[in-house]
Prior knowledge:
The protein is of the alpha+beta class.
Amino acid sequence: MKKINISSLTLSIVPITIGIVLLLAACKQNRDKSAVKTDSTTTVTEVTDTSSAKQAVPGPDTTVKITESYARQVAKDALFWAWPMENIYNRRLAFKQAPHAGLMNGVLPFAPLNTLSMLHDYIQPEQRWVACPNQDVVYGAAIAALDETPVVVQVPDFGNRFWVYQVVDLRTDAFAQLGKMYGTKPGFYLLVGPNWKGDVPKGITKVFRSKTGTAFVVPRVFQDDTPEDKAAIQKVISSINVYALDKFDGKTKTQDWSKLPTLGSPTKDNSTAETKWVFPDKFFDLLPIVLKDAPPLPGEEARYAQVNALLAAARKNPALKKAMIDEAIKAEKELVDPLLQFRNWGIQLANHWSTGNNTAAFGTDYFTRTAMAKSNILVNVGVETKYFYQDLDSAGARLNGGNRYAVTFAKGQTPPVNGFWSLTLYDEFHFFVPNTIKRYSLGTKNKTLIYNSDGSLTIYVQASAPANRDNWLPAPKGNFSLYLRAYWPKDVVVNGSWTPPAVVKVK
Length: 507
């Protein structure tokens, strides 16, 4: 066996070992230079070149010539996602023309900006400004120009009566919580715009800040369908008010809303469908103002830059703008108009009902926001109201006044609410159709509903009167829709454990 020279092997390993030690020492020295010492703990920090991280990401080059097909694509997308914002802003422009608080055409609250107008009874079936109205509450309406002034919102003592103030921004997203479900106390509340930095006067209970310069305030106060309650509610609603901050003196301002004058309409109101609020041929003229009113949400900066670059190009190129308008007209017809029908969108539930979970909290959910703006704009947030929509019977056929239907809630299975519920009928345009008994909904407000012997409740939906007229919801000729509201819904409604019963066609 060959002998190994241990001494020579050891000598050959020494240089390698020394090299490794030196290398480890150098690494330790580098780590020590990068370490931040706090007390007895050493934290290693990563060294990053931040010179480029602080630079803004380049946006569109507005000097570049763009193609018509690209302009059409951006225009089409802009029409869809900004449709609800232009809808609300054009309402602001209409309210700006009101000479004073009154009733538009004698049926709808109408007032100058930063001023409230209030009904004193249920809304009348003739109005066409807002689709899917209800006859469960007494409505009010005010549009606040928060880019001009903060506004004060008065909340009286409602006692045990259900109430909620819907307060939404230009995107129809809610930003103030005022209602019975929030335990809101009587007092004065202040709405301010995104950039307001003034002093809050003494006597203001709470401040709510909008993300946009425009806000829509819609008080809703529950009223029983009885002469006694219609009289009793008058004193309560007389202390509901909205006004500019410079009018605030710490004293409650009251008004007899039953004495409002009739005002003319500044719009071309339709006798069947909702008044038109978005105009594709003028859409891009108004869009810069709308985008300024509603600064981009986090993540929308690139979208805004893209659209603003297109608008700049259109100002220099009439042919390009013409193509954009043409595309906007087509987009409204092909993309937006079909959303009027409830069956075309929403979260699909049993028995062909549908709903939405992010009402008045849309954020960047552009599809749902536009769908609701087209079909039933100004919806409350989910904890305030849960909405269920129906176009079809249990067999999937379109609801039509030529048939008779029954909606039966099993014993103890009427909508679980802390507030109230109602089942409302609308025509194909989502408005009331006048009928001989002037009834457009049934629910908590109705004190004469008759329950079946087993404790269930059946509502009869048909054109002719059934034997049980107290439970009759008159249907019009042609197609119609049903709409169930659950105000201040219980958890089983919010989480989807409870859904409405089928609409059954009967012989």
